[in-house]
Amino acid sequence: MSLAEDLRKTVAAAYEVDADTASTQTFDFPLMPLGTAYDMGRDANGVPLFDPRIFDSREFQRNPYPYYRILRDHYPVYHDKLHNCYFVTRYNDIAECYFDGLGYNTIPKGSSNHVLGNTQLELSGIEHSRRRNLYGRHLVGAALTKRIGAICKLANEMIDEWFNPESGMTEYDPATGKYTMELGKAFANEFPIRVVCQVLGFPDEARDKFYYWYKYMMGGIGGRDYEQKGLMARQDLEDFVESIVEERRLKPNFLLDDEGNEVAPDIISELCKTIVDGDVLSTEEITSNIALIVGGGGETTRGAILNMWYLLLQHPDQMEAVLNNDPLWDAAFHETLRHSSSIGGQPRQNTFDVELQGVKVPAGSLMHMVDFSANHDERIFTDPEKFDILRNDLYSEKILRSGYKKDGRTNHMAFGVGPHLCPGAWISHQEGSIGSSIMSKRIKNVRIATERMAKDIDGVSLAPIGLGAINELWLEFEAM
Amino acid sequence: MSADYGSPTVEHEATAGDDEAGYRSYEVYQRERVGSPPPVKPGQLRTQDYLDDPYTLLANLRHYGPSFRDWQGNAFWITHYNDVTSVLVDSANFATRSKRWFYGLATFGRDLRNNVPFLTAQAAGIDKHAPVVAREIVEAFAKRGTADLATEFAAVFPLQLLGRTWGIPDADLPVFAERYLRMQRGFRWNTANQEAGKQAMLQLVSYFTPLLAARRADPQDDVLSALATLEIDGPAIDAHDVVATLLEGDHETLHGALANMWFLLLTHPEQLDMVNNTRRLVKYAYLETLRHSTPVLSGERFAKREVERFGLLIPEGALVICSAAGANHDETIFADADQFIVGRKDLVQREPRGQYRADGLPAGITPALGTPSKFPALPVGRPRSLYAITRDVATIASHALLDATNNLQLAKDAHPTLKSRGYGELHTCWHLPVTFSAK
Predict the structure, then answer these.
(1) Among A7, A16, A22, whose Cβ lies nearest the Cβ of B160?
(2) What is the C-alpha separation between A20 and A394, in angstroms, rounded?
(3) How high is the ipTM of this complex?
(4) Which InterPro entries match (chain A) (predicted)?
(5) Which of A13, A430, A462, B301 could be B94's S-S partner, Cβ–Cβ 3.0 to 4.6 Å?
(6) Residue B27 touches chain A, beta carbons under 8 Å
């Protein structure tokens, strides 16, 4: 073979001239099999190196867990000099920081106050808990228990629609007696929104706008290009809420049961009569709180329901166990949130110079508490990559209002822990487990309609959940 | 969890009643103009669209611009001809960074390219070997009547010329070339390529160590011997310096320019006829190629200090992407900028010097090669510039091709296109099948 021919082949191989790049987009990080951390090399002592550019890569966004494992094992507090921030990745470190509300406060760069308004997200200490309790207390304990009947009713109403051929929610094949539907469209997208609207006391027409508010306000928190749209959505919400607030100030609205008895006032009415420092809350303050509920109440619960059904159907033995034992829905819900939650983490800013895991962090640094990583911390959960609703190290009883460990079991980190623990955790838990429990009693022989599901880049296997929630979940089932 | 790309820094806190307290921001909100196409989103610059056809997106950036804040890529794009040239000559405010810096190996070896003995040996070597190599390569396929000019001609010629000039034995050349290409491709963003590139650098060091000792003992007439016997301050020259010098140099512009030039000539047969009949025009075809389809789409500069330019506040250390492709198609500079016109009247046919020519004509910009320089055209005691050398070499190779073939044309059913294989990489034609009759 001639020299020129040898060189031609060398060049073709070096530039991958004949590879088809149109679909895989080589300019980006190469996609790789799930669960394989990319080898970024090792230093002289054999410690894996970590290149912060990975955080910007598509591969990382698809499946960050292997990279967080490297960070947990070798760089528990990682200084990312490229993005000028620190990543805290071990469960115990994160929990410690979350509980230290003054040492690690929540006024990080890119905070939410310009879109969500003045909410408790940015506050710390006593001020924070006072603001949070204004509405948070209506979403836990007895106040929540009173609402469970109405939540069940909402779920049943939505599921009734599946068997109504005119609703268009499902496709029915009379030959096989099977229904096909997309769980998100038929249930999970809408159910949390209906619950939140009911809890807030929004009229029905608010549901159509809810997604708009949610999407743009959440997008606007990130600032930059979306901030303007976020502010517009916020203004739209404010216009909508304003008239309701004025009305409720004069005449509170109540959730009614089937007999027409007053069960509980809605949250807007509660906020209208709330008195802080001898003064009622202004409409602006009420709107801010509502904006926060709108932001937290929809997408996360939707993701939990979809992910839970997806994961359970991937593990038929566990599905079987849940169907035979209704209380296991709680465990399934929490294990889903541990295994693949929707919220990646929370930013914090350290008030003082600190030294954490041997790393000196100067005061005022942006520190990312990576909840994803905490949930997969081998130091807390054995075999964390495995989805196992029967695992004995995850606490899955009624959510703890303080602390994060009980009976040798540990809370997952999807709701966070400490003073900023998600105030919607309890209601979200009820929506997820009650909704799914009711669903499971109305349908049988459920399977994932694989042929309808989004495919992975290989065109064969199902798309991975990776980060956040699965986009859509197609189910095939029979009526019970 | 989204990555944080750095937040705007507010240096002075505004106080009540003090309107002067500066509102300083690195953020720019690009508003859509009425009647214009929607502005480019930062993500679009990292899609396959940009790799296939950067010119459409860049036209949009020019339209909306002087500058574009790509917050996702954390970079500032400059696309107007006058802006790009002004940054390229402004070494007081904007710095280049070596490929070794991108590798994270800024202290790896020394870049010896500015030493006169090296430059002299390189120029002499290229002058000596270029015609021979060109003939060899063309003869390899001349009898066949068909060839792929991109892979068999444009891609191979610069490598073989590099090997001969540097004094690398032909037998070692394929192995050397494999490592060399891996190294050249690795300094970009892609971490996988980067790791492969670092490995290649170490392999090249172990390859050059014995070779360098041999040349030092018995100097030959090649670049490697010039490096081996070079006397400079500091420690003696070792293989790391050789590899660093090799890395900072570049063969890709010649590869891409040759492929693009023949792509353009073959897809504009009337221009090819003209060039074939008037061989003097080969040089002009090459220059117009660098303008019309530069193989290196953009050059990167880093702000040395905070500067306010192009309607932006550019922070210290910011990456400024000087888009040569955008500037070369600037309609305010080049008439019919999207047309390939060999010998066009508004393109200066000499080496670009400074931001503006005395005669007012612009030159096409090709980073790594044709960037404007503030230094005089012919420095005393130095060989002619790499710009001129590369231009002459491309001309020699193309002459050899024209001499060996008759009736050169695109193969039937061939639809060649230009594209990049990766972000920030060569924008060129990867397959160019042709037919001809041998002379």
Answers:
(1) A7
(2) 45
(3) 0.73
(4) Cyt_P450 (IPR001128), Cyt_P450_B (IPR002397), Cyt_P450_CS (IPR017972), Cyt_P450_sf (IPR036396)
(5) B301
(6) yes
